[in-house]
Amino acid sequence: MREIKSFIKNASFSELTKAHELLQDAIAQQQEQAQAKEEVLALLKEKGLTLDDLVGSGAMDKRSKVSPKYRIEIDGKVHEWTGRGKTPKAFANVNLDDYKI
User: What pTM was computed for the model?
Assistant: First the structure.
C-alpha cells in the first residue's frame, strides 16, 4: 500500500490515468473469474458432484512415507535419515551402526 501511495504522490496525470485503466481491467477480470467459479460450482451442485469427484484419487501422492533408520544428535539438533538417497552431512564419516534406531 505504501508503494501505491508513493506512486500516486509522484505520478503524472497520464500515469495515473494508465494506472486507473489497469486497475479497472484487473477488477473486471477478477469479477469474471469469480462469476465463472460460481457458475461451475452451481453446475456441480446441480449434477450432485463435488470438487473431489472431479479431481479423483489419482492426484494423490502414492509414495509411502519411509521411517528413519538412523538418528544422530549434533549440537542439540536431532538429524534423522532413512538410509536412502545421498548421505546427509551429519552422517558423513560416522559408523551408521552406532546410530541405528
Answer: 0.48
